[in-house]
Design a protein that fits this description.
The protein is α/β, with parallel strands linked by helices and 88 residues long. 35% of the residues lie in helices and 24% in strands. Helix 2 links the parallel strand 2 (36-43) and strand 3 (63-68). The protein is globular, with a radius of gyration of 13 Å. The mean pLDDT is 95.
Length: 88
């Protein structure tokens, strides 16, 4: 059996957004369209953003987490997510 290829890839770059990340993830997951993968790139956060993201990753198989060791900026985060995206 092959892996399902999602229709859409949603890319979310995150850097030190522990106050807002749960709400942002919940917003994506609450959409009526469900055939997507959510690629979250943690751009070297130093707060608890990654811990929160990992909890969502465990609950929903559509969530893919990429952890960058150091803050590399929006362009690098976005490009990293685009390279990982499988959506049609």
């Amino acid at each position: 059996m092959t892996d399902h290829v999602p229709m859409l890839s949603v890319i979310m770059g995150v850097y030190n957004r522990e106050k807002y990340i749960a709400e942002a993830i919940e917003s994506v997951l609450a959409q009526t369209f469900q055939d997507f993968e959510l690629i979250i790139i943690d751009d070297g956060s130093t707060d608890s953003s990654l811990d929160i993201i990992r909890k969502y990753e465990q609950r929903d198989s559509r969530i893919i987490v990429i952890q960058l060791e150091v803050n590399s900026g929006q362009s690098t985060s976005r490009n990293t997510g685009i390279k990982k995206a499988r959506g049609q």
